[in-house]
Amino acid sequence: MKKLMVALGLLSLAGGAFAAGKPCEELKSEIAAKLDAKGVSGYSLEIVDKGAATDGKVVGSCESGAKEIVYKRG
Predict the structure, then answer these.
(1) What distance in Å separates the CA atoms of residue 36 and residue 57, rounded to the nearest whole number?
(2) Which InterPro entries match (predicted)?
(3) Separation CA 69–CA 61 (nearest Å)
């Protein structure tokens, strides 16, 4: 029984860490690095509030889903 309680406690701690999400600047840097590695040029990445009207494509979500990273060409 003690082992079960310890395991559940560890899972809840890990779940909280994953639910927190990544900081937006960190995720934006990771996405930019992947695009650069593939040879993509002439793009911009913008951090916006979730659901904000934009003419780009949402390529990531950060800060527990409160914000999105939008990719735009040109």
Answers:
(1) 17
(2) DUF1161
(3) 6
Cα–Cα distance, 3 to 5 (Å, whole number): 5
Please tell me which residue, 9 or 66, carries the higher pLDDT value.
66
Query: Where does the pLDDT of residue 20 fall: very low under 50, low under 70, confident under 90, or very high at 90 and above?
Result: low
Helix (H) or strand (E) holding 60: strand 57-62
CB 73 within 8 A of CB 43: yes
Q: In what order do the strands lie in the sheet with 67-73?
A: 43-49, 67-73, 57-62
Structural domain count, the chain: 1
